[in-house]
Design goal:
Radius of gyration: 22 Å
Length: 411
């Protein structure tokens, strides 16, 4: 079945070397959709619904693997840009559904790379598309439609940003249960969109399994995302995650969310040489259980009322600054969905690993930026260095089979 054509010697603070990220040419031509998986296919696996008011990969439980790829659009017109979004949508729909690729015919390039075998498993794949502030420049006439708080990611105190690893017109967050699934999806999208976008930066991540139980651990050995708001609470997600139109926000944003990505390098050679007591005081939690220092279990709420002067959980501990548990701070909560990364070693032979901090929030200023400002100069900054990322806006979901990502923005 052929798809019809549619219209890319060191101190803690100077540890970082200049590792450059390679770019790959990508982007819009027609491709071939696989046949949807059926009961007779050899590789049935978990699939998340592609259509809905919101995109996959936001409230979806974190899969084991992820690829973050930011892209610069090279399409020459608004019409071509719309064609690009249609192509991303149709390719993502096919990949996340899974199935058997069609026979492309004798002499034609194969319909699929074959990385996953003759039957493409859905394998828990989600593909989340977000737009950056630069897409709303004068190329496509979209300036008046820019989400009100979307902008180039600023440098916060203690950042060490490499601008080659920041921002972008588009961001694709590709997550799945296995690495070959996410890499296959990246290849198929780049093939389908050749000529309309090009990779700006890329970072691959992984989500550690619970060890031994509870939330997964980051590469500093501490549990990550313990205090996340419940994704099962619809009213809470409406308040904290989904952006609403009206006031200063354009009409098309309903169902979308401000998508923050921060590539945070962990200076693990130094971190691993300090005592457990110092590590736990920096975070305000126990490393083994994840419990706050005032509690015994991971999900215990820190008791700041019983510790007003920081005798147990220091006043500048990470958890106390990030979430002081006040009524005001409750409205600033973010939905975290981060991944660990390991990029090998830098030019100086130092380990290059850390966290792809990811969060979704209804209001960038009220939530993420406010929290980040509170964290300025916290003790943890001696052991981490934000080096890249960006602000993006996760597009509203695809409502039905005729809908496509970005339609309300572009029509």
């Amino acid at each position: 079945m052929r798809r019809e054509p549619t219209a890319p010697g060191l101190s803690r603070r100077n540890l970082l070397g200049g590792a450059a990220a390679g770019a790959v040419a990508v982007a819009a031509g027609s491709t071939l959709l696989p046949r949807p998986a059926s009961a007779t296919d050899a590789a049935p696996s978990q699939a998340y619904a592609f259509e809905g008011a919101h995109q996959q990969g936001i409230l979806t439980p974190s899969q084991a693997q992820a690829v973050y790829v930011a892209l610069d659009v090279t399409a020459g017109s608004k019409k071509e840009l719309a064609g690009l979004f249609r192509e991303i949508t149709s390719t993502a729909r096919a990949l996340t559904t899974g199935g058997t690729p069609p026979d492309a015919g004798l002499g034609a390039p194969p319909a699929d790379s074959g990385v996953l075998g003759p039957v493409v498993p859905s394998d828990g794949l989600t593909i989340t598309a977000s737009v950056g502030a630069s897409l709303f420049d004068d190329r496509f006439g979209l300036a008046a439609s820019k989400p009100a708080r979307l902008r180039r990611m600023e440098d916060f105190p203690n950042d060490n940003l490499d601008r080659a690893m920041c921002d972008g017109d588009l961001l694709l967050q590709i997550c799945g249960h296995h690495q070959d699934t996410t890499l296959h999806a990246l290849r198929e999208i780049t093939r389908a969109t050749r000529g309309a976008m090009q990779v700006r930066w890329r970072r691959d991540g992984f989500h550690s399994p619970p060890r031994p139980a509870g939330s997964s651990r980051n590469l500093m050995g501490f549990r990550d995302g313990t205090a996340n708001p419940s994704t099962g609470d619809t009213s809470l997600m409406d308040e904290l995650v989904w952006t609403r139109s009206g006031a200063d926000e354009p009409a098309w944003v309903d169902g979308g969310s401000y998508h923050v990505v921060r590539q945070i390098r962990m200076l693990v050679e130094f971190w691993d040489r300090i005592s457990i007591r110092e590590q736990e005081n920096i975070f305000g939690r126990r490393r083994d259980s994840g419990a706050p220092l005032t509690g015994s279990k991971e999900k215990d709420v820190p008791d700041y009322a019983a510790d007003p002067s920081g005798e147990v959980i220091q006043m500048d501990a990470h958890i106390r600054l990030a979430n002081p548990r006040t009524a005001h701070a409750k409205k600033q909560q973010i939905l975290r969905r981060g991944y660990n990364y390991d990029a090998g070693t830098d030019a100086n032979g130092n380990l290059d690993m850390g966290l792809i901090f990811t969060c979704f929030n209804a209001d960038l200023e009220r939530q993420f930026v406010a929290i980040q400002k509170r964290l300025a100069d916290e003790p943890l900054v001696d052991y981490v260095s934000p080096v890249g990322g960006g602000y993006f806006f996760a597009l509203p979901g695809v409502r039905d089979h005729q809908d496509w990502l970005g339609r309300r923005l572009l029509t």
